[in-house]
């Protein structure tokens, strides 16, 4: 294994992994750490504020926060949230991004973390150490993004984004939403790529996914949610949802 931990440390002293639960009223106040943090939700949705920037992470993504980075977080679901925190010692954190980033959480990584947690106190030490190294390797190679749902203070784009993420507008097409801007689609596309580093269609799809996750946790039916998001058939919504989360709405809700 690579020699990335201090001479006096073993890997289990350089990587801490644990789970915790947040109730809807819980909030973590602003703080920074000597170690780096990777957090992802096993269920529910968290909002993080990192150095003044808001970050949202649905269950298929997690947030990497480098050492000495001030941040706070709170639950935005109406139900308890179960999440995993993986903390990396400074030497290991140096091999991770130096800025806050959203990391994709694959089904393999989720299963790997669950297996590591299950064997933490029951497997032999060699097995546990090996699993920690695999987790670290997966964190380094995971696809990374600056934001899952980036925001903008641009005078044209900001009110448009507020409209695009509002549930009452989900049944309208993107073209119908753009009418109020009095700008060409090409101009809006250039603006969104410059400010958000993605097209408005992709941004809106992500906003719909975040909304859908919250509604599923509150017990809304898949048929009603499909209609609310502008889909005439539940099968189309299920396909869309699975493409973004890796699970069907029923699997995620259960």
UniProtKB/TrEMBL annotation:
**Matches recorded under Pfam families:** HTH_18
Q: Which UniProt keywords apply?
A: DNA-binding, Transcription, Transcription regulation
Protein name per UniProt: Helix-turn-helix domain-containing protein
Please give the superkingdom of this protein's source: Bacteria
Query: From which residue to which does the signal peptide run?
Result: none
Identify the InterPro entries for this entry.
Homeodomain-like_sf, HTH_AraC, HTH_AraC-typ_CS, RmlC_Cupin_sf
- Show where the HTH araC/xylS-type domain sits: 154-254
């Amino acid at each position: 294994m690579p020699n990335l931990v201090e001479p006096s440390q073993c890997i289990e002293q350089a990587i801490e992994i644990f789970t915790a639960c947040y109730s809807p009223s819980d909030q973590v106040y602003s703080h920074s750490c000597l170690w780096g943090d990777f957090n992802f939700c096993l269920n529910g949705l968290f909002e993080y504020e990192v150095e003044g920037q808001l970050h949202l992470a649905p269950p298929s993504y997690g947030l990497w926060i480098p050492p000495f980075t001030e941040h706070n977080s709170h639950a935005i679901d109406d139900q308890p949230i179960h999440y995993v925190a993986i903390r990396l010692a400074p030497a290991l954190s140096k091999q991770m991004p130096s800025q806050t980033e959203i990391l994709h959480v694959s089904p393999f990584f989720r299963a790997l973390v669950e297996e590591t947690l299950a064997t933490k106190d029951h497997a032999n030490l060699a097995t546990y150490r090996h699993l920690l190294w695999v987790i670290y390797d997966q964190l380094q190679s995971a696809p990374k993004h600056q934001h899952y749902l980036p925001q903008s203070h641009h005078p044209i784009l900001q009110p448009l984004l507020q409209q695009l993420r509002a549930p009452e507008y989900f049944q309208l097409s993107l073209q119908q939403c753009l009418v109020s801007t009095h700008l060409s689609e090409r101009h809006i596309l250039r603006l969104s790529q410059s400010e958000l580093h993605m097209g408005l269609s992709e941004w809106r799809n992500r906003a719909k996914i975040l909304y859908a996750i919250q509604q599923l946790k509150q017990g809304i039916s898949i048929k009603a949610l499909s209609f609310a998001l502008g889909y005439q058939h539940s099968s189309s919504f299920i396909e869309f949802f699975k493409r973004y989360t890796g699970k069907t709405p029923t699997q995620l809700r259960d």
